Amino acid sequence: MKKIILLSCLLAFGGLSAMAQSSKFAFGIKGGVNYSNLKTKDNLTNENSILGYQAGIFARIGGLMYLQPELYLATKGNEYTGIQTNGGITDIKGNIKFTTLDLPLLLGTKIGSNKLNLRFMGGPILSFIIQEDNSLGSVYNQVSDFGNYKNQTLGFQAGAGIDLGNISFDARYEAGLSNISRSEKYNQQQQLFHLSLGFKLF
Fold first, then answer.
1. Quick one: DSSP state of residue 21?
2. How many of the other CB atoms lie within 10 Å of CB of 76?
3. Quick check: helix, strand or coil at residue 24?
């Protein structure tokens, strides 16, 4: 199933590249870092954010108003420092890290020309977990479904960016809209801050 999704996404971007002769179409590569955590409903855990990365491709279609689909690999997750049990918060560390295939679909607007501008954008993001590195430990794993995560999540991104020639810089915030955990009590949503640098190939 994941291979089919990946192939469909690549074919979609391939179709978009056929529009390259239009002055209102751009295609490029991007990479960057993110700072992520998993926020648990009702503060039933204590956590620290972790540093991750992203690398992939993007397209931009339109003028002053534009559509920007993206496809990139990313790492994200959380470091837990404590969890609520019957005796209160138990201070113990546990880590979870995901490698995901992310598909944002952003609507944006810009001030300036194609080569020099200030941009604002926002839109949904669908993330597919393709690898999970779970080192939560026995205390966390004793909690029903706490370390049992879903294969995909839905979120929302919003931010701003600058274009200088073919170089594109973005800063965004991402908030999870769906519970990534299969546990209903320990409802967890991913939160991230992104910094990325892109280069428009055409």
1. T
2. 28
3. coil
Measured CA to CA in angstroms, residue 159 lies from 7, 153, 156 at distances of 28, 20, 10
The residue ranges of DSSP E strands in the chain, in sequence order, are: 25-40, 45-48, 50-62, 65-85, 88-112, 116-135, 152-164, 167-176, 188-200
pLDDT at 18 over 80: no
Whether residue 135 has pLDDT greater than 90: no
The Cβ of residue 157 has, within 10 Å, a number of other Cβ atoms equal to 21
Region of residue 112 (phi > 0: left; psi between -120 and 50: alpha; otherwise: beta): left
Residue 139 is classified by DSSP as H
**Confidence tier at 11 by pLDDT (50, 70, 90):** very low
Q: For residues 69 and 163, what is the distance between their CA atoms, to the nearest angstrom?
A: 17
Tokens of 126: 């669908």
Q: How many residues does the chain have?
A: 202
The model's pTM is 0.82
Q: Pick the closest to residue 196 from 17, 24, 50, 28 (CA basis).
A: 28
CA distances from 109 to 1, 72, 122 (A): 34, 22, 10
> Token digits for 78?
């959380």
Count of beta carbons in the 10 Å neighbourhood of residue 43? 10
As given in the structure block, the two tokens for residue 86 are 């019957």
Q: What is the DSSP letter of 149?
A: B
From first CA to last CA, the distance across the chain in angstroms is 31
